[in-house]
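README: folding subset

This subset contains proteins for which both the sequence and a predicted structure token string are available. Records are stored as plain text. Below is the entry for Phospholipid-transporting ATPase (1236 residues), shown exactly as it appears on disk.
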Amino acid sequence: MHAKEQELSPTSAGSKSSGHFSGGLQVVDEPSGFNSMALRSIFAGNATRTAETLSDEPKRPEGLHGPPTGPGILGNSIRTSTYNPYNFLPKFLLKSFSRVANCYFLAICVLQTFQSISITHGKPTTAAPLMFILFVAAMKEANEDISRHKADNEENTTVTHVVGSDGTYYDEPVDRSWKDVKVGDIVEIRNREAIPADIVLLETSHPEGQCQIMTANLDGETNLKTMSASKEMMPPGGRNNKHFMNGYGGEVLCELPNNRLLNFEGTYTRPDGEKVSLGPKNVLLRGVVLRQTDWVRGVVAYTGKETKIQMNGGEPPSKTSSVMKMSNDLTILMFVVDILFCTMAAIISAKFLKEDWVQNSCYLWGTCDYPSGTCESLDCRPPPAGKTAVLGFFTHILIFTNFIPISLLVTIDMVKLGQAKMLEFDLDMYHEIKDHSGDVAEIPLSVKRSDLNEELGQVKHIFSDKTGTLTCNMMDFRKCSINGMSYGLGTTAIGLSFLKRNGLQIPVVPPKPAGEPDTEHVNFIDPTFSKIINNTSHPEHKNACEFFLSLALNHDVLPEVSKTGEVVYSASSPDEAALVYAAKHFGFFFKRTETGGKLVIGRRSPRGGETEVVYEVLNFLEFNSDRKRSSVIVKDPKTGSILLFCKGADNVMKKRLAKSVNGSSLMKNTEKHLNQFVDDGLRTLLVGKTTVSADFYAGWKKRFKAAEDSLEHRDEKRMEVMEEIEKDLELMGVTAIEDKLQDGVGDALTKFRGADIKVWMLTGDKVDTAINIGFSCSLLDTGMVLLRACGEDGEMELDHDKVPTDVAIMGKIQELLEKAKSETNNGKECALVVDTAALSAVMNYHKELDLNEICKLCKSVICARVTPRQKASIVDMVRFADPKVVTLSIGDGANDVPMIQTAHIGVGIHGLEGRQAVNNSDYAIGQFRFLQKLLLVHGRFCYRRTAKVCLYMFYKNICYVVPQFIFGMYCMASGQPIYNDFIYQMYNTMYTATPIVIYGILDRDTDMETPMKRPWLYNDGQTNAFLSRGIFFKWVLEGCFHAAVCFFVPLWAYKYGIFESSGMNVDFTTGIGTLTNLMAVVVASGKLYTETGWFNYPHPYIAKGSCTSQFFEGMVSWTGSGCSWQLISFALWWAMFKMISDFGEAGVMGTYFQNVAGSFPILAHDIGLYLIMFMGMAIAFVGSFAQKLFMDMRGYPTRATVAMELERDLKRKARVGSGNSSTGLVVDSDFAGVNP
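--- output ---
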């Protein structure tokens, strides 16, 4: 618990310096205490009277304390849904048209209704695809909101039990829905029921007023926590059921509603006038579940949206991937191109109008019949050039509408949703985990924000927590040092790595002594110590017993009875539970708590048998991240003396030891053992004790009570008083706990280094411990040059806060930067180790950019002794110093949430510290090793797919729209459209919609195993190999070329009469437009096949290695698999064309389809159309095939091509026997630095 730095304990008010909880819950850093002039007054059992005080509360603006509230809310109904049947349409439309793209197409619809510029006879045909896009979005919004409505209704109608309301006490509790509970009501909650509102505890079924709760709904933790009602809540004589106001009937005075989950300050005034202080331990928050307690009763303090869980329920931070940012930039660019095309067309139109032959041909612009002579009539004059240009501009805006893909956003959304489902379906990403009750849960990969799928393929920095992320967070007690003597044999995996690295002898571990019990979370072997603990006459026996007695008393774990009848410990941290299990193992069995805050310890005799000893706990001084220690004050049952046992981090505890301990042989031996435990990668705590005089304790108790009763700055005052008694400690020893590395961590970190991903390990451990763990998990290796910037090394001048000075930190940074440059120039890899003191100096003196220069030259970075706040600051520092890189943070606990939400991508691990990290992450996995496949395989594939989808969406529209511009040059840019508008609008939403979605979900350029074997493939995403402005313009040029093919090939066919052999033909405009339309659909689909990298179908033969055979194999692949996709587009186009041809003949919608009436049978049965289609494809794609062949043959292959060639060579080696590069086969190192 203590080495982990953070925990969520209800007893540690304000212990969380920063943290976030499920559904966007967030604990904000702010001082405790509140304005005494702004308090809430609640009359217990009288909601009506309380309502009067709520109405007088001030309005509170949004700020650190939470969202805007006030005056007070009486009711308890909550609503998380966005819409209702009355506001759905207006709110949805308002949200939809906040998107610029939707506003653009709405404007197009409006322009289409103006006859003077319309090309659709005044009909807004763009409305159909726009409405389809909005309909899909509306269904998505409605589906999500219906789910929220159901959840709201289920919660609001949950039943609780009201004991007293409006001054009336009920003999039997009355059932009411949660929504009907009001501030001031006294409610009863029974075992396994959820708390309906934030309530102040009045009494519980436990004689001491204690109750146990599970806060999984609040912070994700499944372990139980103890809360309590103050003994002083009851007036003398107890509660009078019949005369309720003489029983409870008091007044609660507390702080106004705020979002500080771990803070609560207030007082309860009993009917007799006696005041009782209230703290966070006396409050049950809405959403937590009562466990192992028959019932509790309390007065409702906050309801509805003023409950702490609701006030913390903000939206998670907005994150946008770099690919989507590029897509937005390209959309703006294409809009500019659209405007330029329209402007050019308008200018050309106006210029044509000034030509004499145009002025004398009024059939082109006038009302005269054709031919009409010289148009000398005053009523038949050409329109002004300016007017023609303006009208031409807006007409071409309508013609070139599809320069901006109307389906871009919805297509990408569908693709990412499909990608997310494919990720979740990956059985290789499943993991099994046991919860605290021993039940096995299957944990799949969970995608919480599919918008970031492609970002997974571009990560440059990984920021990882250690405990529970790289390690299992399953603690075992391994070693200890007691009174200067070290106990515990053997070593850990980290220790073995240290011994091998330094050439030291590996110790032989003897077998476990016979008869020694097997205890969960204890892996301790030492025959010598077994003799000491079992021999009462041994001189070290007393010291050993006192040591483990302190561990059995100084904790906040709860004993529970498991399904098998055994006592198991539920703790807020695995470290804490492991220490209590160790005490049990060595004969000090914490069994239960009793009335009066007494702990029952089962003392096992060395001769057998067990004696129960009751210790009266006077005070428990909790652990938090600022104190980094916990203490318990107990009364010795034999002597009656007052003892204080304290344990905590070594750097904190050393300051509180008695002066006589410092410099003693005991201290020297203990520090030696401490360093040995660090070399083994063990988590250490120092243990101390002191005897407190009765007089001092009496005075201290009064001061502590005054601090607890304070309504202002309570936590700060409590800390000051705690400091008074935690001093002059005797050193008892050191505990050493092992947290084993997770499976596959070393392999994953090695692969990440091969993928040029920099891994940062952020931990609260000592520097040397962090370094040893780094070596054991392959984050570091012996060939690396280790650069240290640590305040504890004594190489930098420190200020009074033990932080390096400005001059010292800058000098150190310059020294390390020069060394890093020198070593990297010599071909060596570097790693940086920095501690919390150095990081504080870097941030205090704004040296982040200088530190980042060193980090750029290092393969790995270790940050030791860091706090949760510093974790987030480190991520922010890297993002600020290098805005173009993509960062990823991964962790498993609440203390990792700020870091997870600060990075571009947050990954949570299902661990033993609750679900806070998972609930606030973008992706959730079972163990760290799964991150390897998530990034190297799925991340890379998703980046490539999304990049290609983005490029293709613009390409296919260029291929479709540019023929309109070319055709305009043949008709004086008059605004004559080449396509039938209905077919034109279906291009994006129907003909070419399905293939690109399938491609974006399924396509890949290698098999699933190759990216894991060749991690350098991941460089594609880091170098933007698939999407950049240069690549975009290449696609634009190719789209323009293919557009020219789509127009000129049908034009050439008409010129030479290819379609006139049957004697039947359609008019020129309809024929050219229809064939160009079909060519665009076919060519756009064909382009997608040239970009396809993987086809799941049986190959007709296997190429034997020559470039020619591989080229033809590729042709077969594209043709064979391509047909399946092309036929979809081809069939849809013919179906729609037949429909509108029939509509034209039947006169549907008047003359709208008249120009294509009867054209289907003419074109569908003409063999020339199909010949031209294949001719156009051949012309369009011969260049693409030639380019691919040239790049592969001339030494410019893509990384994927190289990787697959390596895999083929390995298979050949397997067939012909062992070989090497001398046989002519390529090796991996030959291509590790290849650029696509």
